[in-house]
Amino acid sequence: MKKYKILAAFIIFLSYSSIWISYAGVFSDMWTSIKNSFDGKDLKTDMIVWQKSNLIEWKDTVDTSLGVDKHEVNFSDNFIKVIERYIFWLLWLTTVSVFIYIWYMLFTAEWKEDEFKKALKALTYAVVWLAVIPLSYIVIKIISGLNF
Description:
By secondary structure, the chain is mainly alpha-helical. The protein has helices at residues 2-37, 79-107, 113-143, and strands spanning 51-53, 58-60.
């Protein structure tokens, strides 16, 4: 039975990683075509500068609290903001992986009460974790001046 569990975990891992690899290939091709359609002078990193409508006026959402000029923004000026975005995406990816593992634990509990309770406890912790991620994002945005 242990061989089947290991085999199932390996198959889940391979399918999960192959999905992410295929997404990476699609998005890298898309990013390359977008990047090649612009010249390098006007292209700014999408993660740093973008425009949002608030139905009244357009505002730049560049973090200028570090004393940078909003027209000359680069990666080193808003390093913290870029790292923040990568960390939040990593948290979401980890959350999805944890949920897949917990559901695997629930399905392989085989009516063993102690394993089932352990999986339900882990599911409870994961749900709390899933609630903490958006709340932490909101707290960071409130502290940094509501630049969503």
